[in-house]
């Protein structure tokens, strides 16, 4: 409003406000040679538009479509542009009543190279920062009390071909969310928070933004390789969506579900959590606004549909679609150890992530031209947000079993690259030991340094061989970015949110510690997030990347998250310039 009033005041005074030019892709963008993207030029605060020229490497860009979204703007759009290898300069010369103005964007396109990998299995642990990996390592492989050495290593940390540390950021923020970070891996671009594989634009429509081609779209366009998407999160959550969809708003759930089957990727394998967005509006639990039924319609497209671990394991097909819950697949602890009816409800036969990974690979392996498979352990993040470190860490252990299977597959199939990384980190940290015999919420039961001792995880294990969380001496684990909450130091068999509403509205609305947790016996912690925050948040901490097999040498040292896209393309020898 203030900007509008200022523009009006300048016009009344006879002084035209200078037009604001924006160009997407942004200055400094890097692409694969031949990777397709949409060009968007926007001029805001325009008064009496006179002339404009848009040139790429000194030549006029043909095919631009001019629009006027509002009375004070002019836009130009060109869909499906690509550039050859090398450095390129887009230049916009614009003139209105305020005079001439110029905007320049320089891009670089990477040439195609030969690659060793015909098959890629990319594991993304949502929220899997270095500290979360380390916590899982300390639980899975306790230290030897006789000498302090670890008794083993996680599969993801063992027999590495290469490794890297990965930094993150957003197009519009130093901090990141799952949508833009997964999109950076998928496209090689910096993307806005909450956006999936698109650049900004000045329209209200979240589905018309300028797009950039993903690694899965490039493979679909230029090869006959298969594509698979697996996640333990609900079906259209940010990370699985990043490998098949385009939208400014990750919450466009119905549109994302449609893009899985109507977009340019159409994965051969789609094994995900919740069904809310794939079932018609009349079905219980549906979030759709129409009668579309992708369970039925997918089968008309040749997919075999499965909805349980039993059906998944029995499937033998070339196209596979699986939904295993109405929402997210609950934590490993809830499925394998606690098995509470209030959590599982009617979904008592859900697969483990290693089951989903194995069946996805078996299905994609029917394609002689190789495949790209993304597997997300989506629930790590969803339990780190509410500060439930036990559920988060045991989901890392579930992920590690899937990685172990994939590494064994890669040994038998040496043209396979296995990658394990994350989209972003959380502020989890192990800082001591805890004497569980003293019960919940006892600060005096926390031991630090030599008083921490050696926790006793692994003294009892479940049917899958993973340790039980209940043991005599546990770890003291905390988070750095938190709301006000009650700390018990121990887990619980039934999940509880750390906060509840304070019951107020307007400016006074906020959250307070969950009294049910406080009543268990606890220490109340004062948070450091705004009172409007009801859970923990992502951090800017660097992420691990572990690489095994063919092309692993492309992943090393300090990498930006966008570099992962280009390293995958090099490992696979992707040539995006193919028609």
Give a description of the structure.
- There is one protein chain.
- The chain is an alpha/beta fold.
- The protein has 15 helices and 28 strands.
- The strands form seven sheets. A ten-stranded mixed sheet has the order 14-15-13-12-16-10-17-27-11-28, with helices on both faces. Strands 2-9-8-4-5 form a five-stranded mixed sheet, with no helix packed on it. Strands 1-3-7-6 form a four-stranded antiparallel sheet, with no helix packed on it.
- The longest helix is centred in the C-terminal third of the chain and has 24 residues, at 389-412.
- It is globular and about 80 Å long.
- It starts with a helix and ends in a 7-residue tail after the last helix.
- The model is unreliable at 1-15 (pLDDT under 50).
- Residues 1-18 form the signal peptide.
List the helices and strands and how they pair.
Layout: H1 2-12, E1 20-24, E2 30-32, E3 37-44, E4 51-56, E5 59-60, E6 65-67, E7 73-81, E8 86-96, E9 99-110, E10 119-125, H2 130-140, E11 162-167, H3 178-187, H4 215-222, E12 226-231, H5 238-242, H6 253-262, E13 269-274, H7 294-300, E14 304-306, H8 309-314, E15 320-325, H9 332-338, H10 341-344, H11 353-364, E16 371-377, H12 379-384, H13 389-412, E17 416-422, E18 425-426, E19 428-435, E20 446-447, E21 473-479, E22 485-487, E23 499-501, E24 511-513, H14 515-518, E25 523-525, E26 538-539, E27 543-549, E28 557-560, H15 561-572
Parallel strand pairs: 2-9, 10-16, 10-17, 11-28, 12-13, 12-16, 13-15, 14-15
Antiparallel strand pairs: 1-3, 3-7, 4-5, 4-8, 6-7, 8-9, 11-27, 17-27, 18-26, 19-20, 19-21, 22-25, 23-24
Helix pairs in contact: 2-13, 3-15, 11-13
């Amino acid at each position: 409003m203030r900007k509008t009033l200022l523009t009006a005041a300048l016009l009344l005074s006879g002084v035209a406000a200078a037009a604001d030019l924006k160009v997407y892709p942004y200055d400094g963008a890097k692409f694969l040679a031949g990777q397709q993207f949409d060009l968007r030029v926007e001029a805001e605060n325009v008064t009496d538009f006179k002339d404009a020229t848009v040139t790429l490497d000194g030549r006029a860009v043909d095919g631009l479509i001019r629009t006027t979204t509002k009375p004070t703007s002019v836009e130009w759009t060109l869909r499906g542009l690509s550039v050859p290898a090398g450095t390129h300069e887009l230049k916009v010369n614009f003139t209105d009543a305020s005079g001439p103005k110029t905007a320049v964007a320089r891009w670089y396109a990477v040439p195609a190279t030969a690659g060793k990998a015909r098959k890629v299995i990319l594991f993304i642990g949502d929220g899997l920062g270095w500290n979360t990996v380390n916590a899982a390592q300390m639980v899975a492989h306790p230290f030897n009390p006789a000498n302090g050495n670890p008794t083993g290593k996680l599969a993801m940390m063992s027999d590495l071909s290469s490794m890297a540390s990965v930094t993150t950021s957003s197009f519009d923020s130093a901090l990141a969310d799952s949508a833009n970070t997964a999109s950076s891996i998928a496209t090689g671009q910096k993307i806005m928070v909450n956006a999936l594989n698109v650049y900004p634009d000045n329209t209200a429509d979240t589905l018309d933004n300028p797009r950039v081609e993903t690694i899965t779209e490039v493979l679909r366009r230029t090869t006959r390789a298969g594509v698979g998407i697996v996640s333990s999160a609900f079906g259209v959550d940010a990370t699985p969506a990043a490998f098949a969809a385009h939208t400014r708003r990750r919450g466009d759930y119905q549109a994302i579900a449609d893009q899985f089957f109507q977009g340019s990727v159409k994965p051969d394998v789609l094994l995900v959590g919740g069904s809310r967005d794939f079932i018609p509006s009349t079905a219980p639990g549906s979030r759709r606004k129409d009668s579309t039924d992708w369970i039925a319609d997918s089968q008309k497209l040749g997919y075999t549909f499965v909805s349980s671990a039993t059906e998944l394991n029995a499937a033998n097909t070339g196209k596979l679609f699986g939904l295993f819950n109405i929402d997210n697949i609950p934590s490993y602890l809830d499925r394998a150890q606690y098995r509470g009816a209030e959590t599982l409800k009617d979904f008592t036969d859900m697969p483990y992530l290693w089951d989903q990974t194995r069946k996805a690979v078996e299905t994609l392996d029917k394609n002689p031209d190789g495949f790209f498979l993304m597997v997300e352990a989506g629930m790590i993040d969803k339990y780190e947000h509410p500060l439930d470190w036990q559920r988060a860490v045991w989901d890392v252990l579930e992920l590690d079993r899937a990685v172990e299977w994939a590494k064994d597959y890669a040994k038998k199939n040496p043209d396979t690259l296995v990658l394990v990384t994350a989209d972003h980190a959380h502020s989890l940290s192990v800082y001591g030991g805890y004497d569980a015999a003293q019960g919940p919420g006892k600060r005096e039961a926390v031991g630090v340094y030599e008083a921490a001792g050696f926790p006793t995880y692994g003294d009892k294990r479940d049917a899958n061989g993973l340790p039980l969380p209940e043991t005599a001496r546990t770890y003291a684990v905390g988070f750095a970015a938190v709301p006000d909450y009650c700390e018990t130091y121990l887990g619980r068999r039934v999940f509880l949110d750390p906060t509840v509403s304070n019951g107020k509205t307007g400016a006074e609305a906020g959250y307070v510690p969950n009294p049910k947790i406080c009543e268990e016996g606890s220490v109340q912690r004062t948070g450091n997030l705004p009172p409007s925050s009801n859970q923990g948040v992502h951090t800017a901490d660097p992420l691990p990347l572990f690489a095994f097999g063919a092309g692993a040498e492309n992943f090393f040292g300090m990498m930006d998250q966008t570099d992962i896209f280009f390293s995958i393309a090099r490992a696979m020898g992707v040539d995006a310039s193919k028609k």
